[in-house]
TrEMBL record:
The chain crosses the membrane at residues 13-30, 298-322, 328-344, 356-379. It comes from Pseudonocardia petroleophila. It holds the Pfam family Glyco_tranf_2_3. GO terms for cellular component: plasma membrane. PANTHER family: HYALURONAN SYNTHASE, MANNURONAN SYNTHASE. GO terms for molecular function: hyaluronan synthase activity. InterPro entries: Nucleotide-diphossugar_trans. Keywords: Cell membrane, Glycosyltransferase, Membrane, Transferase, Transmembrane, Transmembrane helix. This is Glycosyltransferase. One of its GO terms (biological process) is hyaluronan biosynthetic process. It is found in: Cell membrane. Its main location: membrane.
Amino acid sequence: MIEHWSVVEHWELFLPIGVIGAISWTVWLVRKLLSARYRPLVNDFRTTTSVVVPSFHEDPDVLERCLDTWLDQGPDEVIVVLDVADTEARDRLMVRSDPRIHVMMFRHAGKRSALGVGIRAARFDVLVLTDSDTAWEPGLLDAVQMPFVDPLVGAVGTRQNVYEPHSSIWRRVADWIIDLRYLDYVPATARRGGVVCLSGRTAAYRRSAVLPVLTHVEHEYFLGRRCVAGDDGRLTWLVLAQGYRTEHQDSARALSMFPATFTAFCKQRVRWSRNSYRCYLTAVYQGWLWRQPLISQLTVFQILFTPVTMFATVYYVAAAFTSPQRDLAVALGITWLFVGRAIRSFSHLRRKPADLAILPLVTLVIMLVALPIKTWAFVTMNKQGWLTRHADRIGGEGQDEASLTTGDARAGA
């Protein structure tokens, strides 16, 4: 009876939803199958490396903890570009007397400006750009160099997760979401050498591929406004536009500090979504996208149209309230919502089965990100700003070292 009401009497309302759903699931399945066949490259290729770290009012405890993980892997140099006000961090780094550490004091005008200063000062073949709150797991530096054996490879991304995810429910949710990105999405595009965004938390670039386009990273304008964030997506596409491949190394693993609070979590997602819209719309407009593998094109378009696909899901559940058998229709709609999310999250749940307990929360958060947050980000995509880092505070919002142990962090306040 519910089938008669929804499909027969109102088929014209649900046909577009069915088409959108079929496309979305087909693209997901294709990416899932391609990702399942991905394997990281293993060889003995090594070259010289410069680690470049833009650091704006980072918690010195976080910076030093991460610095130890970088130095332990033997880079040729580590260039830390501090803001002129970061005197405590400067003093802590200088007292180490490690000849590989080069501290540069610079009045930051956004992350891009600091990256430009550090990259120009770098002297070695591969630039490893890393965030000041990102730690490396053992073996990252060796693994991230391996794809550069191919001269057509211009950049290499890393597998990433959240540092201490159980210190906050919002970090745990973020770890679920980012885990799926690197299990089911990025490897698919990497198999064709077309990773569409190498996360700035840690990525390696061929220095000779970056220097010719560096000014276009520092001085990007979108609809007349200078871009502040989104340096990683911009640099990825500038490398792709030169004809290089962008690869992924699952064996190179990094752990980043993520926000411990819901407010900071949402701000981070707004910033990321704005960056994505500007980056991918530029890639479409410039024609760069059409020279990339089909799976990369599909990935970009699914990201751009995420609010549309999520609206179809919400519309179906909302329409169930008008069904003659409303309770059953709503129950079936909501059940499929959670079951569908569990199916799409199988890769993460296989790795962390205990996270099944937070499936309802993760489902609601993904809906929040995919519809209202991304819609708001699209409407305001040219509003520039970092949102979670401020000149009057140390560390990112909800991302200092103390947030790992405070009661507010554990409660996810």
